[in-house]
């Protein structure tokens, strides 16, 4: 594993007074993303909880320009802005799209995939709270197997889409996973992405207090458990082939993660065992990539 102990230096781009729920981990991620990228940044944000954090203008919580685009078009909008800046000789300005999982895994995926294929010079960050939370916690293709959402009241019958591997398979210069429980690692990855040219993609797991049914102060702890149980490993992939593991499973039973969240409270012990088996098998397969 790679040691990424870092001093977090924040440029004060993110301000207090946003409209997210108290304790929202998406807001925490916004703070560290924007404060790390700094003043020379333009953000593109589609409809999502991120949009109520970053806008409406002039009441934005961010001291940088924010373009609120459609749910389908984050990557295309960011790519267009970056190309226009380059044409004006302003290549030093970072363009970052910050979208939810619904806007990334599902509705915005076509424009994201084609921007990746063209190797557009943008940073694309997915704040993955595993559902359409801003509209009442419906399921997305990021929602995990058996999790309750308002559109899967009996639990989602299919698995979470693996967007990290899909994006790595585009062979973009940089792909990484991160989460709010490991802020030094998150900042390290945003800073690294800032210094790379071409398409950069980071998916950040951000527990949604309301949609997952966790206490206001538990978001970061839950996200650490996601990593320590092996549910959501933190890793990087360069050019689709060079894998590096930052934080992975510590062998903690997945029940420690699941039983803290109301979205799983309908599960039987057999179903929790089933999830444990899947996590074990995924982790064994996943480790091969780092030993190769
Ligand atoms: C094409 C389209 N479909 C539906 C909507 C309504 N809508 C606005 S925000 C949102 C939820 C987006 O979910 P996600 O991207 O996961 O972000 P989150 O709210 O979870 O932060 C939806 C469905 C929309 N704006 N555009
Ligand atoms: S619904 Fe979830 S993601 Fe949205 S503001 Fe509240 S805690 Fe944050
Ligand atoms: Mg979401």
Automatic annotation (TrEMBL):
Residues 66-203 form the Thiamine pyrophosphate enzyme TPP-binding domain. Keywords: Oxidoreductase. One of its GO terms (molecular function) is thiamine pyrophosphate binding. It comes from the Bacteria. CDD domains: TPP_PFOR_porB_like. InterPro entries: PorB-like (IPR051479), THDP-binding (IPR029061), TPP_enzyme_TPP-bd (IPR011766). This is 2-oxoacid:ferredoxin oxidoreductase, beta subunit. It comes from Desulfoscipio gibsoniae DSM 7213.
